[in-house]
Amino acid sequence: MKVTNTRLTGFLATTFPKIAFGIGILGAAFLAFFFKQDPHHFYFAYLTVFMIFLTLTLGSLFFVLIQHLVRAGWSIGFKRIAETLMSNSGLMALLFIPIIFGIPHLYHWSNAAEVAKDPLLNSKHAFLNIPFFKVRALFYFGIWITLSRVFYKKSTEQDSSGDPENTVKMQKYSTFGILLFALSITFACIDWVMSLTPHWYSTMIGVYFFAGSVVVALSTISCIAQILRSQGYLKEVLTVEHFHEIGKLLYGFNVFWAYIAFSQYFLIWYANIPEEIAFYLEHFKGTWNTVAIFLVLGHFVGPFILFMSRHAKRNLPFHFAITLWFIFMQMVDMYWFVMPNFNINGFHIGGVELAALSCIGGLYLGTFFTRLSKQALYPIQDPRISESIHLENL
Amino acid sequence: MQNESTVQRPHLITPGINFKEVSDIVCKPVEDKTPKWWFIAFTGAVSLLLLLLSMLSYLIWEGVGVWGLNNPVAWGFDIVNFVFWVGIGHAGTLISAILFLFKQKWRMSINRFAEAMTIFAVICALVFPGIHVGRAWLDFYLFPIPNQMAMWPNFRSPLLWDVFAVSTYFSVSLLFWFVGLIPDLAVIRDRAKTKTKKMVYGIFALGWRGANRHWQNYEKAYLLLAALATPLVLSVHSIVSFDFAVSQLPGWHTTIFPPYFVAGAIFSGFAMVVTLMVLARELFGLKDLITLHHLECMNRIILATGTMVGYAYAMEFFTAWYSGNQYEAFAFVNRAFGPYAWAYWIMISCNVISPQLFWSKRIRTSIPLMFIISIFVNIGMWFERFVITVTSLHADFLPSSWAYYSPTWVDLCTLAGSFGLFFTLFLLFLKFLPMIAISEVKGVMPEANPHHGEAH
Q1: Which residues contact B139 (CB under 8 A, 6 or more apart)?
Q2: Which of A27, A28, A46, B36 satisfies CB 3.0 to 4.6 Å to A358 for a cystine?
Q3: In this model, does residue A2 exceed pLDDT 50?
Q4: Could A123 and B359 be called an inter-chain contact, meaning their C-beta atoms sit closer than 8 Å?
């Protein structure tokens, strides 16, 4: 077996993170400007972009956990990318700080005068109040940072020690890890997104965000793997067979997302109860309706048809295009979920959204590639690496 | 047993068994003299089946008044049993389709068995909507048959979608099962000693000769059916959940119902597979093909899906409070502490608490304990449907009409009788068909690898 370079060097390791950080800082400067102009708009735009990258991070965490839980062998080549993505949970915690300052702008329930007027908000006050909100956020980030640190450390340690015991340990931790993950992502979405419209409720919301986050994470992992491959990395561990496999998983999870999104919408539409349907009425108002239809066609119908065939999944340039498309659709999804609370009458993309995207995105990718260059690009001593290399889709 | 602390893949069947022995083990129950216990069990099952038939005749003769339904509780045992049996019928197709797509090779030893169970469970389920309509002789109106009165079923009702969903599921599952059976039927045909047997199995083997071309078509058909069956596994129970969730009734109307019902269905289906598998491998000496590893894998799935069901219960409870809707909140408090609290706590202890014992490897791999837990799960999942259906209805919007629902002896005997139908079909399956997919098991044995025995 010919082993090429297992370490990221050159442009992606040195210059690119600098450019990304530069863009991030530039974006932050613009954001500061927009913040002065309209703090209200700033916070909603910021939350949208924050949710895009949070779902990516959590989806990657799920990928790592589930691969260990089911003792998967095919995915070893993708694992380090996912591990590095999930390790950005610390960065996400830092990026959460502005949202804490934005609570009065984002969340009605934080306004004591409104709560006093509104019996429904009053009845939720035990859960929806600022101190408890902060404590819960601390818990969520505590869980995510701990899980990602433990798994990242165990995995990178194995690169030098080659101890299969690390894999056994990770398999053990993944069991309760996935429980903590499920509960934390559910309540994080309830807190940060569902409570934007505090009268509205849906038992499905956690599953909805979970499904979207897995789609965006699988897309990003596959997309980055292709970029690295085009630079000559990972060629010995990732072949078209592996992209075919991750493509199947991505396709499946996208259908799952559609299933969850449809069920949630359909049940609320059918029963037509005022406090539930209000959410969809707001999110279908004006041009938001166009966004919603675009989401259905772009997130589900288009990829469902185009990405179904085996040839589509194995055609790497097309596969790459689809992953970029899915990442874009996750942005649209988060935008459609959060922004109608601000732009009530229709969608409108302004400078502040783009500034937030370049700020968080720049910092995110800069941190990602810096961390990626510190370790091997795949777990070189993983006990299942040989199984992974010999993968075939017959 | 393989050591927990290694990362090696476990053997799927006991090492040292060769291809011929696999055929021998699987064909033995079909070819040998029928054991005595089979006749005893079959007599019991047929008696229960007769009980079902007499209950159905009595029902059709007398009318649904013989059931315990009352004014607010118009959906009772009939719907509970329907949902219960459809749920049981989910494991087979999950194992055969979804685990196939996920390349889970351990499914090979158990899929035939589970698929057969699926089909029989769906047959049991189909009995109930047919009698639930009240006038069973008008059942044909369930289908959109053009008629001179231009009367159509209500296409906007999930109850009608159920008719389509369940019958599609049944057809695809049956086809899937049959396609998988073809090579094995040919094996039995080729081994048959009597002419009749050769002819009967020969007809169903569709002229299978094991040619390369046959296998190519077979593999393609199998893959396509797996891809078709996968969304069906999800859709059937999602639509069953719509029966409840599209309403405005607190306790029924909640958005998590579709995936929650699917998880619950897989949970109960796997529990039933474990219950029957533990017995079958003992009675037919299949321990080399269905190893402890298979049972452990199934118990892990029971643990996973049981936890998902627990998650759904918790989300429902949390949201009932969080919604601030007093009717929602009442429905759930009434479930846990109202007149049906006994049913609710049976459900919680069987469905949420008992599968959690499978965290322990010792319990997961202990035959008696997994048998007991799987029965608990079966009971719990029946009660789940009871709790959802009855507790939500019995205290509805109008307090003056609140009433307590109790089943009558007819309800209870019909439930018992449905087990008779299930076990009659199941015992016939055990006697006349290969209960393990011979060719698929051979395909995952190390000897099937073309490089087997070569030095590295």
Answers
A1: B130, B133
A2: A27
A3: no
A4: no
Cα distance between residue B139 and residue A194, in whole Å: 44
Mutate to test the interface with A, among B322, B326, B359, B388 (most CBs of A within 10 A): B322
Testing the interface with B: which of A124, A127, A204 to mutate, by most B Cβ within 10 A? A204
Q: Which stretch of A294-303, A356-365, B394-403 has the lowest confidence by average pLDDT?
A: B394-403
Cα(first)–Cα(last) distance of chain B, in Å? 26
Chain B residue numbers touching A190 (CB-CB < 8 A): 322
- Please judge whether B4 and A182 are an interchain contact, meaning their C-beta atoms are less than 8 angstroms apart: no
The domain tally of chain B equals 1
Shortest CA gap B315–chain A (Å)? 6
Q: What is the pLDDT of residues A100-135, one digit of tens each?
A: 999 999 998 998 888 888 888 888 989 999 999 999
pLDDT digits (tens, 9 = 90+) for B206-238: 989 888 999 999 989 988 888 888 888 888 989
Q: Is B177 left (phi over 0), alpha (psi -120 to 50) or beta?
A: alpha
Which of A263, A264, A387, A394 to mutate to probe the B interface, most B CBs <10 Å? Answer: A263
Write out the residue range of the structural domain in which residue B206 sits. 26-136+168-446
Candidates A65, A2, A13, A11; CA nearest to A377 is A13
Partners of B9 on chain A (C-beta within 8 Å) are: 387
What percent of chain A stands above pLDDT 90? 74
Burial class (CB in 10 A: 0-12, 13-18, 19+), B11: middle
Residue B3: pLDDT band (50, 70, 90) is very low
The minimum CA-CA distance between B230 and chain A, rounded to whole Å, is 10
The ipTM, to two decimals, is 0.91
**Residue A258 is encoded by which pair of tokens?**
């559609």
Mean pLDDT of chain A: 92
Residues of B in contact with A199 (CB under 8 A): 324
pLDDT for residue A44 = 94
Q: What is the DSSP string of A80-134?
A: HHHHHHHTTHHHHHHHHHHHHHTHHHH-GGG-HHHHHH-HHHHHTTTTSSHHHHH
Report residue B203 as tokens: 């007809």
In a domain, B297, yes or no: yes
pLDDT at position B108 is 84
Answer yes or no: do A203 and B258 touch at CB < 8 A. no
Mean pLDDT of chain B: 89
Residue of B nearest to A392 (CA): B103
pLDDT reported for residue B2: 42
Task: For residue A208, give the chain B residue with the closest CA.
Answer: B256
